[in-house]
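Chain A, query sequence.
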Amino acid sequence: MKKLAIALIAIGILLSGCVAYDAPREGRGDREREYRGDRDRDGVPNRADRDRDGDGVPNRQDRRPDDPRRY
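Chain A, predicted structure.
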């Protein structure tokens, strides 16, 4: 029982240093990653942009605020 406890503690210590991160996807350039949080690429992040898809219709009035085509 003591050996099992020591083994579990050792495994826990080894795994505590592991960090999960988003690996860059192949085929995507730095420029595309740069605009991930800015859909219409106007320099305003999506969370603060009143028209995040850039179609001229404010998000509050837009039926599809992430689709740049007007409906």
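The radius of gyration is 23 Å. The mean pLDDT is 78.
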